[in-house]
Amino acid sequence: MKTGKELIYIASPYTNPDDSIRIQNYETVTKIAADLVAEGHVAISPITYGHVLSECKEMPTDWGFWMDFCLVLLAKCDKILVCNTISEWENSKGVAAEIEFAKQNGIKVEYLKPLE
Fold first, then answer.
1. Are 45 and 10 in contact (CB under 8 A)?
2. Hey, what CATH topology would domain 9-111 get?
3. 31-45 per-position pLDDT tens digit
4. d(C-alpha 8, C-alpha 109), whole Å
5. What is the pTM for the complete model shown?
6. 2-40 tens-digit pLDDT
7. How far apart are CA 33 and CA 37, in angstroms?
């Protein structure tokens, strides 16, 4: 069934040695995802999903563990929305890899806040 809506992948930083920053990143991107869905968009946040899973079952929270999971999801999406409003997004290995994957696979790349 086709709905005509884009599937949006939300890219955001997550991994941090400071658990409070990691949780803050999760809460921030989850709010962004909720806002998008409430506005009628179809959006997936692998951070939101993965964080909840890792709360239920002990799993690593680093990019190395989640990379294949994230890229399989991203490959199904029409657009990647980069959360460049979250601190340290430009230093995130995962976000950088997701942007590169999107570019290599013809997936539109957009930023939450226009780049200057």
1. yes
2. Rossmann fold (3.40.50)
3. 999 999 999 999 999
4. 10
5. 0.91
6. 677 999 999 999 988 898 999 999 999 999 999 999 999
7. 6
